Structures are given as C-alpha cells and as structure tokens.
Amino acid sequence: MTFGGRSDVDGGAPPERGEDRGLCAPGPRGTGTRSLGRRVLLGLAVAATGTVSATAALRRGERGSSPAGAPLTVVPEGTDGPAVQRAIDAVHEAGGGTVRLAAGTTYLTDEHLLVRSAVALVGAGPSTVVKAGPRFLETRGPNDGYPLLTTDGAQDVRIADLTADQSGDLLDGNVENRLHEYLVDIRRSRRVVVERVSTVNPFSYSIASVGSTDFTIRGCRTLVRTSGRYTQLDGIHVLDSSHGLVVDNDVDQGGPGRDGDDALVAHTMGRDCHHVVYRGNRVRSGRYGGGMQLAVGDGDIHDITVAGNLFYDSPSGVRVGDYGGGGVVRGITIGGDRRDGNVFTRNARFAVQVRTRTGGGIHVSHNTSIGSGGFLLPEDATGTDNLVR
Question: What is the pTM of this model?
C-alpha cells in the first residue's frame, strides 16, 4: 500500500447520500444489499428484450425502451476500446441499459473506458476479458492515471462477470501517476456495483472506491502474477468513501507472483471513511503488506465492520495504524458475536494490532488465531472471547 497517491476528492465533493439508495445500498448485516429500487432494477438489472448495435441506438435516438418497455441492450460493434466505449455512450444517451460483452472474447483497449451513469457493463464470466492494449500508457484517464475501467462521477452503474487485465506483465507500468487511478476505479460515484469481476496483471490497486458512496464490491477475485516489477499493489482499497459493502471476495495479493501488498484497505486522505462492511472475504496479502489495513490520515475511520473473513498466509492479519494527519479511528468492530468472528491462520506476526489514536468504540471479539500471533489492543479497546491456538 502507498500513502503517496491522491484521493482526487478535491475535484468535487463526494455525492451526498440520497433517499433512493438503489442498486447497491448496504442492507442489514450479512444480507448483501437491500432490495433494488424499481427504477434502477428496470434500468440496469433486467436483461433487455431486443439487442441492437451502438450505432443503431444512436441513429434511432433510443430512450432506453423496447416495445415491451424494457431497457436497451447494446452489443459493441467490434472488440476494441472505441467500440466498447461507443456502446457505453449509446446506452447512456438512450437513458440506460446494458452493454453486453461476449464470452470467450478479448476486448483489447488502448483507451481508459468510462462506464457512465445508468449503464451495466456485463460479460459472460471470466472468459470475457477487457485487456489493456500495447498503447494503453500513451494516454491517461480523467484523473490523470491509468484506469482500465472507471466510473468517474457516474451513478447507478454495474460492472459484472468479466476479467479486467491491466497488462502489467507486458507493459512497463512504472510510470508517473500510476497510482492516481486504479485498474477498476469507482470514483466520486454513487450506487455502483462491481461483482464477479476478476482482476489480473495489475500495476496499480486492483479495485478501488475513491470518494464514493453506496457501493458494493462482491464476489470478485484479485490476483497478482508479477514478481520484482512493482510494489504497492493493493487488492481492494476503499479511500475516503462511505456506506459500502466489500463481501464474498477472493483477494489474493500473495500469489503466484510476489509483488502484492495489502489485500483489503480502509484509508483516509481528506475525508472520513465510514460505514463500510468487509464480510465473508478470503484474504491473502503480498509480502509488502498485510491482510487488512485501516490507514488513518486526514479524516476519521469509523463505523467499520470486519466480520466472517479468512485471513491466511500473510505477514500480518488486521492492522490499524496512523499514517499522518489528524484522523482517529472509532466505532470499529472486528469480529462480533460467535457467528461473526474472523479466522486468522498462518499469518507471520499478529492477528490484530491497533496502534493509533482511537476515539472509542473499538471492539475485537470472537476471533480465532491459528498460528498467527495474538491480539494487540490499546487499553480503551474491548477484546473478548478471542482464541489463540
């Protein structure tokens, strides 16, 4: 993990929370998301009847409806970046719907694809690959970095069922601003779902939420294959964001390559990071990091739940630390009741360590450490029923 990047929230305040939490609003603990709002469900989640090309949609001036009233579905006319972006733009201009990518197809892009409001970008599983092309580094994204997929201010977005390949094994990603934007970049957005997305060959963080609210990262898989090429390759990094779910992901920054860093992160650089649930994840960090970091900078980290995760084969488990600035941690739950405990196995140094200013409400309970060290907590923290074997 690096703390030398930027959050880019100065370019516009994070959206305020609205009453319609729509597509990816966190629901009760352990339930994933609330019921989808009817508007968002019709606009994004239901497969459209009838499929047209991006060009045809623009020519006909579609407004997101078929004769049956279903949202528009567009298949790109080609497998390069411009074709995919044209399809995204067409669906957005038509009022919302789905851009459908084919199975067994690699979409090679030298562009940084912007997934716009009311658009679902959906593949057919891991065999649908969106891959950075040979000229990918010749241009930058909207926030001066190198995202493969970015939302950049959009709302009501879904990215699902595909592999995102930043080509860090083929390109020399050690370029200026490589950590200004990330492989899959949720940025200054509301109601974004990223689900069942596999990330490979990163040269930046794999999946990040920056200055966003009401987001869900679910059922995704991160993987680092490179060794000796990069540092600071985090898995799922939540920065200056709120009201999110990070659930049921397989975050593997530890293999088969050796360049990985922290697996899960909650981080502040200018605004609070709060009301985020990390649950049911399988987590392995790389040699440069730990299973999870709560990294306090200029902004508080509060109302964070870390429950029911497996942290394994990492240098450390969960670390709460101060990285400069005036922020504190408060209202942090690691574990919970018996059904919510995390399992730490074969981690080198400790299961949980809290070494920063706290504002109270730190609860660490019903966790199990197997060959992973103990629970190193400040006096004002509550630590009960943690088992060390």
Answer: 0.86
β-pairing verdict for 273-279 and 242-247 = parallel
Strands 236-239 and 264-267: parallel
d(CA 350, CA 318): 8
The lowest-confidence range among 10-14, 250-254, 291-295, 379-383 is 10-14
**Residue 97 bridge partners (DSSP):** 72, 119
Count structural domains, the chain: 1
Rounded distance between C-alpha atoms, residue 184 and residue 163, angstroms = 11
Return mean pLDDT, the chain: 86
Residue 15 in any domain: the answer is no
With respect to residue 196, please indicate whether it lies within any of the assigned structural domains.
yes
Q: List all residues 6 or more positions away from 239 whose beta carbon is below 8 Å from its beta carbon.
A: 7, 208, 209, 210, 211, 265, 267, 268, 269, 273
Q: Contact at 8 Å (CB) between 89 and 57?
A: no
What Rg, from alpha-carbon coordinates, does the chain have? 20
Residue type, 117: S
Q: Which residue in 302, 295, 362, 349 sits closest to 324, CA to CA?
A: 295
Contacts of 18 (CB under 8 A, 6+ apart): 190
Q: Which residues form the domain of 33?
A: 20-388
pLDDT in tens, 203-260: 999 999 999 999 999 999 999 999 999 999 999 999 999 999 999 999 999 989 999 9
Residues 179, 203, 146, 156, Cα dihedral to 10°: -90
pLDDT in tens, 300-355: 999 999 999 999 999 999 999 988 888 999 999 999 999 999 999 999 999 999 98
Residue 14 inside a domain? The answer is: no
CATH number of the domain encompassing residue 140: 2.160.20.10
